Amino acid sequence: MGTLCFAHPTTLDPFYVSGDASANDEEREFILGYSLAERLLLVVHVERGARTRVISARVATRIERRLYEQS
Q: How many domains is the chain partitioned into structurally?
């Protein structure tokens, strides 16, 4: 099984966009920014104490790309 490693988003993409992605009474956040492989990704995550749980990570859609470009 592989290991995931996440650095603070500002170290990967200084122009990242973040915001609220809450659902089902759970506080969630999203980060939209470029990966080291130069792909624009949308990552939804939740903070639980000192731990971060990734809910979803995928390539950004056309609409999400526009949001990133307009910010």
A: 1
